[in-house]
Task: structure prediction
Amino acid sequence: MNISKLIDGKAAAARVLQQVKHDVLALQTQGITPALAVILVGEDPASQVYVRNKILRAEECGIRSIEHRLDADCPQDRLLALIATLNADPAVSGILLQLPLPAHIEETRALQAIDPRKDVDGFHSENVGGLSQGRDVLAPCTPTGCMYLLEQTLGDLTGKHAVVIGRSNIVGKPMAALLLKAHCSVTVVHSRSTDARALCQLADIVVAAVGRPRMIDASWLKPGAVVIDVGINRIQDGDRSRLVGDVDFDSALPQASAITPVPGGVGPMTIAFLMHNTVTAARQQAQAQVQPHNSPSEAACLSAY
Ligand code: NDP
Result:
């Protein structure tokens, strides 16, 4: 395997987390301790693992974590009341509502209840709208992590043609918005696209966020394309299961100039940028207190990385 082509997400995430720790220490000298409130509704096993990992990572960075566990049958109003309490608490910098939620809770309503200044997942419509306008807002963590990997690999992305495969609200759409903001020409393909492969063959950058194991092989790629594989798919391999991406790594490797592995590519970046967003939110809230004339959306602005 040509190791030099590998984009090492673990190493990149470690660099981001090192910067986060540094930023936390700097805030602490001003009497500010960033705090992340994590809300888990129900007992979905995967969500429990994700929440545990987020809390552990926060603590490693010096970010105070506050865990709120609600029963699976918790009434929606109780969740909304908890979010309102956390919104009003000046000691809470960021609020993360672990998804998916039980079916009786309206996801959009719950996400919209979070103060956009504390919306460290970047899912509130004020942040979504701000991102689509090219403003510096709290942006979703996975695509922000992909941008970091791309900029570390390619430097300036201006003029590159990027194809994003997938148009979900949490990955595909914000990814496209971030690439546009970085002055790429962006094509988004999805399940209704006519000949997604032919469009992808034109791309300098391919971001795969489909949720279909190893769908994208070398035949989708222009020679020298940079490939970011967001997919995390568990497949059965003989008598054991393992994780693979949306890209057929072995097939794509010779064709790509750089590629993320799965695991160890995009995965570690998501949590690193959750910590980054929490520190940014804490800093912005402190600045908004010093400059009380800032509007909420101005207060939510953050500089790139
Ligand atoms: P969604 O299921 O929400 O979206 C998948 C997208 O892929 C949809 O837009 C869909 O199109 C499109 N699609 C499906 N089939 C095809 C096809 N044959 N050709 C082209 N497009 C297709 O998934 P997510 O965006 O939430 O996640 C995508 C992957 O990324 C998953 O494997 C997920 O596990 C992973 N993931 C990884 C994260 C990380 O931290 N590394 C974080 C989040 C997700 P349409 O809209 O038309 O249905």
Observations:
- Confidence is low (pLDDT under 50) at residues 297-302.
- The two ends are 31 Å apart (CA to CA).
- Residues 267-290 form the longest helix (24 residues).
- The CA atoms of residues 83 and 113 lie 7 Å apart.
